[in-house]
Specification:
Order of helices and strands: HEHEHEHEHEHH
CATH class of the largest domain: Alpha Beta
Radius of gyration: 30 Å
Strand order of the largest sheet: 2-1-3-4-5
Strand content: 5-15%
Distance between the termini: 111 Å
Structural class: alpha/beta
Shape: globular
Number of domains: 2
Number of strands: 5
Protein backbone atom coordinates (compact mmCIF):
# COMPACT_ATOMS: atom_id res chain seq x y z
CA UNK A 1 0.00 0.00 0.00
CA UNK A 2 2.77 2.41 0.86
CA UNK A 3 4.68 1.71 -2.33
CA UNK A 4 1.62 2.38 -4.49
CA UNK A 5 1.24 5.83 -2.97
CA UNK A 6 4.89 6.86 -3.38
CA UNK A 7 5.72 10.19 -5.08
CA UNK A 8 7.05 10.20 -8.73
CA UNK A 9 10.76 9.97 -9.30
CA UNK A 10 12.81 13.11 -9.91
CA UNK A 11 13.03 12.31 -13.65
CA UNK A 12 9.27 11.91 -13.96
CA UNK A 13 8.61 15.09 -12.01
CA UNK A 14 11.02 17.09 -14.16
CA UNK A 15 9.40 15.86 -17.37
CA UNK A 16 5.94 16.79 -16.18
CA UNK A 17 7.19 20.23 -15.16
CA UNK A 18 8.76 20.90 -18.56
CA UNK A 19 5.59 19.91 -20.35
CA UNK A 20 3.60 22.32 -18.17
CA UNK A 21 6.01 25.19 -18.86
CA UNK A 22 5.89 24.55 -22.63
CA UNK A 23 2.11 24.62 -22.61
CA UNK A 24 2.10 27.90 -20.73
CA UNK A 25 4.67 29.38 -23.14
CA UNK A 26 2.55 28.46 -26.14
CA UNK A 27 -0.50 30.01 -24.49
CA UNK A 28 1.44 33.20 -23.78
CA UNK A 29 2.61 33.45 -27.40
CA UNK A 30 -0.83 33.05 -28.94
CA UNK A 31 -2.12 36.56 -28.04
CA UNK A 32 1.04 38.09 -29.55
CA UNK A 33 0.50 36.19 -32.79
CA UNK A 34 -3.13 37.28 -32.89
CA UNK A 35 -2.13 40.88 -32.22
CA UNK A 36 0.45 40.80 -35.01
CA UNK A 37 -2.12 39.36 -37.41
CA UNK A 38 -4.62 42.05 -36.44
CA UNK A 39 -2.05 44.73 -37.22
CA UNK A 40 -1.26 43.37 -40.65
CA UNK A 41 -4.90 43.08 -41.73
CA UNK A 42 -5.76 46.79 -41.39
CA UNK A 43 -5.61 48.76 -44.64
CA UNK A 44 -5.38 52.54 -44.37
CA UNK A 45 -7.09 54.67 -47.01
CA UNK A 46 -6.12 58.29 -47.57
CA UNK A 47 -8.75 60.95 -48.18
CA UNK A 48 -7.95 64.35 -49.70
CA UNK A 49 -10.57 66.89 -48.61
CA UNK A 50 -10.83 70.63 -47.92
CA UNK A 51 -11.33 70.71 -44.16
CA UNK A 52 -10.58 74.43 -43.82
CA UNK A 53 -11.31 77.39 -46.06
CA UNK A 54 -14.31 78.21 -48.20
CA UNK A 55 -15.07 74.61 -49.19
CA UNK A 56 -14.84 73.16 -45.67
CA UNK A 57 -18.51 72.13 -45.70
CA UNK A 58 -17.85 69.93 -48.73
CA UNK A 59 -14.80 68.47 -47.03
CA UNK A 60 -16.79 67.56 -43.94
CA UNK A 61 -19.29 65.69 -46.10
CA UNK A 62 -16.48 63.80 -47.83
CA UNK A 63 -15.10 62.71 -44.47
CA UNK A 64 -18.50 61.69 -43.13
CA UNK A 65 -19.28 59.67 -46.23
CA UNK A 66 -15.94 57.87 -46.13
CA UNK A 67 -16.21 57.20 -42.40
CA UNK A 68 -19.72 55.80 -42.82
CA UNK A 69 -18.62 53.48 -45.64
CA UNK A 70 -15.63 52.22 -43.65
CA UNK A 71 -17.72 51.74 -40.53
CA UNK A 72 -20.26 49.66 -42.45
CA UNK A 73 -17.56 47.53 -44.08
CA UNK A 74 -15.75 46.92 -40.79
CA UNK A 75 -18.97 46.01 -38.98
CA UNK A 76 -19.56 43.33 -41.61
CA UNK A 77 -16.09 41.90 -41.02
CA UNK A 78 -14.26 43.89 -43.66
CA UNK A 79 -13.31 42.53 -47.08
CA UNK A 80 -11.37 39.28 -47.56
CA UNK A 81 -10.22 39.46 -43.93
CA UNK A 82 -9.11 43.09 -44.12
CA UNK A 83 -10.58 46.01 -42.18
CA UNK A 84 -10.09 49.67 -43.01
CA UNK A 85 -8.96 52.91 -41.40
CA UNK A 86 -9.26 56.45 -42.76
CA UNK A 87 -6.37 58.94 -42.92
CA UNK A 88 -7.40 62.48 -43.90
CA UNK A 89 -5.32 65.25 -45.48
CA UNK A 90 -6.58 68.85 -45.58
CA UNK A 91 -6.34 70.38 -49.07
CA UNK A 92 -7.44 73.77 -47.67
CA UNK A 93 -7.98 76.13 -50.64
CA UNK A 94 -7.06 73.46 -53.24
CA UNK A 95 -3.91 75.36 -54.21
CA UNK A 96 -1.06 73.17 -55.53
CA UNK A 97 1.03 73.75 -52.41
CA UNK A 98 -1.83 72.79 -50.10
CA UNK A 99 -2.69 69.67 -52.10
CA UNK A 100 0.93 68.50 -52.27
CA UNK A 101 1.30 69.09 -48.52
CA UNK A 102 -1.83 67.02 -47.83
CA UNK A 103 -0.57 64.20 -50.04
CA UNK A 104 2.83 64.20 -48.34
CA UNK A 105 1.15 64.13 -44.93
CA UNK A 106 -0.94 61.10 -45.84
CA UNK A 107 1.77 59.16 -47.67
CA UNK A 108 4.21 59.64 -44.80
CA UNK A 109 2.28 56.73 -43.30
CA UNK A 110 3.60 53.63 -45.08
CA UNK A 111 0.40 51.74 -44.27
CA UNK A 112 -1.71 53.92 -46.61
CA UNK A 113 -2.50 51.69 -49.57
CA UNK A 114 -4.95 53.83 -51.57
CA UNK A 115 -6.16 57.41 -51.92
CA UNK A 116 -9.51 58.97 -52.80
CA UNK A 117 -11.19 62.36 -53.06
CA UNK A 118 -14.39 64.13 -53.97
CA UNK A 119 -12.16 66.81 -55.43
CA UNK A 120 -8.67 67.80 -54.32
CA UNK A 121 -7.65 70.58 -56.70
CA UNK A 122 -9.21 72.71 -59.42
CA UNK A 123 -7.09 71.09 -62.16
CA UNK A 124 -6.76 67.46 -60.99
CA UNK A 125 -2.98 67.88 -61.32
CA UNK A 126 -2.47 65.47 -58.42
CA UNK A 127 -3.32 62.63 -60.81
CA UNK A 128 0.26 62.93 -62.06
CA UNK A 129 1.64 62.49 -58.54
CA UNK A 130 -0.54 59.45 -57.89
CA UNK A 131 0.64 57.82 -61.11
CA UNK A 132 4.28 58.44 -60.20
CA UNK A 133 3.74 56.77 -56.81
CA UNK A 134 1.67 53.93 -58.34
CA UNK A 135 -0.93 54.87 -55.75
CA UNK A 136 -4.50 53.67 -56.40
CA UNK A 137 -6.46 56.91 -56.68
CA UNK A 138 -10.26 57.13 -56.80
CA UNK A 139 -11.41 60.59 -57.89
CA UNK A 140 -14.92 62.02 -58.24
CA UNK A 141 -13.93 65.42 -59.61
CA UNK A 142 -14.65 66.84 -63.08
CA UNK A 143 -14.49 63.83 -65.41
CA UNK A 144 -13.65 66.02 -68.43
CA UNK A 145 -10.47 67.23 -66.76
CA UNK A 146 -9.58 63.70 -65.66
CA UNK A 147 -10.11 62.36 -69.18
CA UNK A 148 -8.03 65.16 -70.68
CA UNK A 149 -5.07 64.24 -68.49
CA UNK A 150 -5.32 60.48 -68.85
CA UNK A 151 -6.08 60.37 -72.60
CA UNK A 152 -2.56 61.51 -73.48
CA UNK A 153 -1.04 58.31 -72.08
CA UNK A 154 -3.64 55.90 -70.61
CA UNK A 155 -1.05 53.24 -69.71
CA UNK A 156 0.70 55.70 -67.43
CA UNK A 157 -2.39 56.11 -65.25
CA UNK A 158 -3.27 52.50 -64.52
CA UNK A 159 -3.88 53.25 -60.83
CA UNK A 160 -6.23 56.23 -61.40
CA UNK A 161 -9.97 55.57 -61.40
CA UNK A 162 -12.68 58.16 -62.10
CA UNK A 163 -15.77 57.49 -59.99
CA UNK A 164 -18.00 59.59 -62.25
CA UNK A 165 -18.83 58.87 -65.91
CA UNK A 166 -17.84 61.21 -68.70
CA UNK A 167 -20.75 63.60 -69.26
CA UNK A 168 -20.09 66.47 -71.63
CA UNK A 169 -23.63 67.78 -71.12
CA UNK A 170 -22.52 68.77 -67.63
CA UNK A 171 -21.21 71.90 -69.36
CA UNK A 172 -24.08 72.52 -71.79
CA UNK A 173 -27.30 70.97 -70.49
CA UNK A 174 -28.57 73.74 -68.20
CA UNK A 175 -29.93 76.06 -70.96
CA UNK A 176 -31.85 73.18 -72.56
CA UNK A 177 -33.31 72.13 -69.21
CA UNK A 178 -34.39 75.68 -68.40
CA UNK A 179 -36.19 75.89 -71.74
CA UNK A 180 -37.99 72.59 -71.03
CA UNK A 181 -38.95 73.70 -67.52
CA UNK A 182 -40.27 77.01 -68.87
CA UNK A 183 -42.36 75.27 -71.53
CA UNK A 184 -43.76 72.89 -68.91
CA UNK A 185 -44.68 75.79 -66.66
CA UNK A 186 -42.29 74.70 -63.90
CA UNK A 187 -40.43 78.02 -63.97
CA UNK A 188 -41.18 81.48 -65.37
CA UNK A 189 -38.46 83.21 -67.39
CA UNK A 190 -38.83 86.99 -67.57
CA UNK A 191 -36.22 87.04 -70.34
CA UNK A 192 -33.62 84.79 -71.88
CA UNK A 193 -30.53 86.69 -70.83
CA UNK A 194 -28.00 84.83 -68.69
CA UNK A 195 -25.01 86.26 -66.83
CA UNK A 196 -22.07 83.87 -66.53
CA UNK A 197 -19.62 84.65 -63.74
CA UNK A 198 -16.73 82.17 -63.94
CA UNK A 199 -13.96 81.71 -61.42
CA UNK A 200 -10.33 81.92 -62.43
CA UNK A 201 -9.64 78.18 -62.53
CA UNK A 202 -9.84 75.39 -65.14
CA UNK A 203 -12.84 73.72 -63.48
CA UNK A 204 -14.97 76.85 -63.75
CA UNK A 205 -13.61 77.73 -67.20
CA UNK A 206 -14.66 74.33 -68.57
CA UNK A 207 -18.26 74.93 -67.51
CA UNK A 208 -18.50 78.56 -68.55
CA UNK A 209 -16.93 77.87 -71.96
CA UNK A 210 -19.48 75.12 -72.54
CA UNK A 211 -22.39 77.44 -71.72
CA UNK A 212 -21.31 80.30 -73.95
Amino acid sequence: MLVACAAPTVEESSSDSVETVDDETEMAEEPEAEEEMAETTVIKIGLLAPLTGGQAADGEEMVRGAELAIEELNEEGGVAGYTFELVVGDTQDQSPDAVVSAIESITSDDDVMAMMTGYASTTNFEIELMAEMSMPYLISANSAQTAEIISEDPDKYGTVWSLVPSFDAYETELPRLMKVWAEDGQIELKNRKVAIVPSDNPYSATISDGLI
